[in-house]
Amino acid sequence: MSIAMPTPDPRIIARGPQIVAALRAVLPPDAVIDDPQETRAYECDALTAYRCPPLAVVLPRTTAEVAATMKICGQMGVPVVPRGAGTSLAGGALPTADCVILGTMRLRDVLQIDTDNRFIRVQTGVTNLSVSAELEPYGFFYAPDPSSQLACTIAGNIAMNSGGAHCLKYGVTTNNLLGATVVLTTGEVVELGGPELGPAGLDLLGVLCGSEGQLGVVTEATLRILPRPEGARPVLIGFGSPEVAGECVANIIRSGVLPVAIEYMDEPCLRAVEAFAKAGYPDCPAVLIVEVEGSRAEIDDQIARIRAIADALNPVEFRESRNADEALAIWKGRKSAFGAMGRLGDYICLDGTVPVGQLPYTLRRIGELSRQHGLEVANVFHAGDGNMHPLILFNANKPGDLARAEAFGADILRLCVEVGGCLTGEHGVGVEKRDLMSDQYAPEDLAIQMQVKDVFDPQWLLNPAKVFPLDASAAHRGMAAE
Amino acid sequence: MNVASDLAPMTEAELSEILSDHHARRAPLRIMGGGTRAENRVAGEALSLSRLSGVVTYSPGEMTLIARPGTPLPEIEEMLAAEGQALAFEPPDMGAVLGGNGTPTLGGTVAANASGPRRLLAGACRDHLLGVRFVDGRGRVMKNGGRVMKNVTGLDLSKLLAGSYGTLAVLTEVVLKTLPLLPARTTLSFLGVTEDIALRIFTTALSTPFEVSGAAHVGGTVYLRIEGLEGQLAYRRDRLLALLADHRPEVLDDAPWQAIRDVAHFAGGGPLWRILCKPSDAPGLCDGLRAMGGDCSLDWGGGLIWYRGPGNPRALAPHATLVRREGAEGPAFPPLPPAVARLQDGLRRSFDPAGILNPGLMDA
Questions:
Q1: CATH number for the A1-105 domain, one of 3.30.460.30, 3.40.50.1380, 3.30.43.10, 3.30.230.10?
Q2: Which of A100, A427, B49, B165 is the most exposed place for a label (fewest CB within 10 A)?
């Protein structure tokens, strides 16, 4: 394990029973868990290489219960790690032995659907997919659609500013979040934003979204909803080289057609997907899936334009879907890509983002790095916005393999920064990329971010060992300890 | 309006020196963009950003623009249009409304998070802001975000700076997403309708998937704008015409969207308020506002009311900002709950401990 966590505070652990008793005194009996058999279920999120059972787990059902929890933890100086569904690939919900996990999964109510004013208000433990399911009878949907949408919660989406395949057109969480009920570390409850299209003062909601549980705990959210498109249709385009596929992406974007999604898969990924899902993808070095929306005629028109762009680049195959089944078949391989890769072994999934024009160079360099590190990598990602997802394959049972995979991953992320991109496009920094933050940001850039955290969380109790390199945050966390 | 100023840095380093000097002396500064506002709301030495101007990089294929804050907006718009692109949030030129004779700048647009009618569909300026470079009130040079479409690396301070009116930091570079300008557009108009009817038209049109990119009510007329590829446009227009036939729509090839964007109908003539509300509340609010003695118009499908006239609209609608004072009393920005005000004050002290950046401009 190469990512260090701070030494848990023995004084807090020693006070464990008092802390649990204080929480039990104000919360329903089933809301506080401290049995080590049960807290073990919360020892990690989807970054499973790192585990640590928390001191206790609190599962509130209301904003008032969250506020009571935060107030007690604030008064007793106990770190709080907020947790949605635990699907973070970056270790955003990784506990420390001296922390309370605050899970939002029982905050499950849909509070209001207002199609006239085009918003939905929910408690944040509802899953991403269930929000759109609630809206379906009304002909509306909620746009951000992370791959984990069946499981992940709105709380986690807000904390990580989640994206998804369709954000090329509709934006990510921050572009679709109108308001939030936020519990601060003092236990105070504040409303930021609302159904209106803008803040009353500074855009605090904008800085809260994507803050990885560092500033406050969001218990309710007002989300922008959109009318469902009349239809959507994907096409699949196979290319003889990654470079030409990259060129096709840039040409589509320049043309004025704005697809809802442009997804990319490379040869290793295609091989794994074919073996697993038998999606019938062409045997070639690179595949794009491009989806457009609209009426039948509108879709035909857009696909004709995309076809003209692709044909100029001499594709191996241009496959249109003539019906819903064929459309599903085109998406089938892409949607099962992560599962297919999982069959090949353990993997690390990165999500660095690069300027679209740098995609061909970045892919070539990743190939070179793969040979240097002696580990295979597959690429499957949101090409339209340059959000890459290199999957590095390794064997967790082989000593040293994880460390090698992490070193390879770090090289890829540094490459992303080098070509003008960033460490993470949608997964978040968490612990996984924490120590690489100094590659993207100068000390002053991190200092001002940590000063913003000081304002919201002066004691540094909320998810304190994440996002900022430990040496950079030591002084801030030190203040908290005193 | 005279934009000439003794303080007009040409580089980020010069700006940093000025700010650290003023920080040390606790000497307040009034930060000047293009000079579109005639009213001076800040007591401080003028700091002009007119020389921190120019495009750093424009990559149409990557849909990104990097430019310095003093760059005039028309220059940007012309450059983007030549590539068939635009800033989708439709930045307004508020000069006529604010009484200044200057040209709007990119930095001023970001600092005010200024967004036009297409905000309804495409989002606000802050939604298109990918990254910033800035100098804080101590003179520290910093950056946040970057130049890629998706970025969740660290806290998103770009959002915080957009709409902070220069009270937290001085921008030195902004990175904005550019989008293809849709080739065809048309407008449906509905003459002589009340706000009640306007709202019904908005609700119907905005519940369709036809991507209405403007929904305004000015001078008793509703305007609905649709944009798209040539093939899309006729289809969308005809579907909307059929859906809204009861309200007797007309098709306008040349609708006054620029005037609506710039609120030209309320240039001069008394205090001007910008009110954000739930669209369904708009007709009732407009009745109440008119009873106070002024006029109203609607944008953003009813989510934005412009009110020109006497009185204090906050009695009816708390989310009201005084855009043009012309003698009106009281704070310009909506009052905040104590806990939120405390957070804002804390942020201001972090960015600008000596309180030298546009002090008091946001009433804090």
A1: 3.30.43.10
A2: B165
